[in-house]
Amino acid sequence: MRCDLLDRARQVLADRRGNLIIEMAFALPLILLLLIGLLDLGRLGLQKSAMLQGARAGAQYGMTAPDEIDNINSTAQSATGLTGVTATTTPFCECVSGTVVDCGTTCTGGQTKKKYITVSTTRSFSSVLGRATINLGSYAIWTPPTSVSASVTMIVP
To answer: What does the domain layout of the chain look like in residue ranges?
Structure first.
């Protein structure tokens, strides 16, 4: 009887059939968190790319018609393909020496004035993980982004 009990105890200790379920129970939350984070990062990257495309399209339109600020902004907004996009256009002038001047004035010493246009697009971003800050212990503190923006500056010929 004692031998049967020892044999049964050895069989139970040698049995590894339930290990996979236990290991999966520990690993699954971490795997899901990483998967959700990667999906969120992909969404952020796609929106950032769309914002950059919109800013680029607005700046290209601004090269041909730099005084049509409303049309530049609407071109930038529609080129993103997203809703809720805010576009701003800022023209500025600079002398060849690098000094920023008002576009209505001339540069000192007869320098050539260059005109630039900066188009910026911004949109709010809502993370799947929410707006909560995630504390990773002594490694880092991570806060999801709340907005996506892009900016393009081009010279007006």
So the answer is: 47-156
